[in-house]
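Figure S7 source data.
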Amino acid sequence: MTYYDQVKEAADAVTARVGGGELPSTAVVLGSGLGDFASSLEPGVSMPYDALPHWPASRVVGHEGRLVVGTARGRTVAALAGRCHLYEGHDLRTVTFSIRVLGLLGVKILILTNAAGGVNTGFAQGALMVIDDHINLMGQNPLVGPNDDRLGARFPDMTEVYSTRLRRIADQAGRELGRPLPHGVYAALLGPSYETPAEIRYLRTIGVDAVGMSTVPEAIVARHMGIEVLAVSCISNMAAGVLPQPLDHAEVMETTRRVRGQFIALLEGIIGRL
Ligand code: HPA
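Tokens for the predicted hypoxanthine complex:
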């Protein structure tokens, strides 16, 4: 079975589960500790990833593993609670399988969220950063291999991965919450080890504001399919060497838990303005 056929089968399974209901035109990928948004959708058809054909499972603590289709602010939205990562040993086609399914379902707007380390020392822990652009330092690209023209063009343009229109909407939603959002450049690294202080100094030198281990492959694939993308990072910790303390995943989880109410309010504000 081809990759395209697998994606199609998964999309058909989602369509069947949604029944006669409206299919989503907007989707949100929820990063570490941010899965709660999925529960806030109404009425919500919830599909565990392992109940969907070919859908890869993520085993990272803090990632749930389900797709929920429901409404937020009157819009039909798909929420993905949990994603899989390159560092888990999946290849990038597997990592971006869910985005392909969303594209086939007819999703036109994709909101990606993640937890990231703050490289820009002007950021506070818990800040929500709008991604203006990215630097792919994973050493891989999800579009490597034969191109399936049904999914997109061989050499897709990446001049405006993160939609100017959607970034403005995010700014308006942030202001409405009394929380103006910083913007910045996100670098994706393979992980799973965190960076060294020297790597963080290097990243700062090349213009990076936040660093993480996800999002970029999904954004590339979404643009390949012509989906409009917005991405927001929760600065869950200051990157290595910024503060005189080691990094750990528990800190990442604790910060995302602390700000998740605000993050959900921001997502709802954004969706309400689409
Ligand atoms: N580095 C890389 N990925 C991350 C970090 C970090 O400091 N925090 C959360 N995800």
